[in-house]
Amino acid sequence: MNRTVLDLIGNTPLVRAQKLVENPAVELYFKLEGQNPGGSVKDRPAYNMIKKALERGNITRETKLIEATSGNTGIALAMVARLLQLNIELVMPENSTAERVQTMRAYGAKVILTSAEGGIEGSRDFAEARMKEGNYFMLNQFGNDDNWQAHYATTGPEIWRDTNNKITHFVSSMGTTGTIMGTSTFLKEQDKNVQIVGVQPGDDARIPGIRKWPKEYLPSIFDESKVDRVMEVNEQEARTMTARLAEEEGIFAGMSSGGAAAAAVKLCSELESGVVVSIVCDRGDRYLSSDLFEKK
After folding, report:
1. Among 13, 30, 76, 275, fewest CB within 10 Å belongs to which?
2. Where in this protein does the record say N6-(pyridoxal phosphate)lysine is found (predicted)?
3. Residue 140 annotated as lining a ligand binding site
4. Residues 137-168: pLDDT tens digits?
């Protein structure tokens, strides 16, 4: 068969919520992206960005890759780069969870930590400066069409297929926005009435994996016309729903998935009927060193 780990990316399960939705006329499904081999939805764009760059000749085995990441993309890139025998340096804020840093290093990547105060924006600035010094190639997940096109080619079609073409609403946290851009593009081509709901943190809320970007850092792949509605969640809502996902649905996920699920559950309470799909973008085990699962 000659299958590799890369062949296992995608075709993740779609499971129906058992307890979170009280409206009997609405079905809520969770797409379990933590089932990807690298543990998150970012396996899809990581593989596509590297594969397309190799096909176009933008990079070779001698190229040194550098990328800023808040975690999941870095883990995915580290995994794919190692399998394809590429060197990669990953830049992330120093307050990232230890599990994320250790996982990247386990795959053989070099990890550079920037100040926590600067956040992911500071990591992006550092990687940009390093690239301009020469000898580096940046995949630039925030401005690379290969990011969202991975979801156009895989995530969207899988959801359409697995809901028997009946999806009415798609809910996704917004970080780099690749997931929501690509999935929206595909679903809207199938049925223009499918509603695309983006989730972002409320003012001052800190939810790893979800961002409300300052204008100068807004991902260039983002097209607001592809999002019908933006719902905001606060940190406590995201934390509470992350715990409920584990305790009530048996879904162990990170806080950004809890944020998306909180918005999806709220949406379900408003609808007269519908089939809602919410992205569960990663697994909870990469947050165990944080206080996310501590009982208050």
Report:
1. 13
2. 42
3. no
4. 999 999 999 999 999 999 999 999 999 999 99
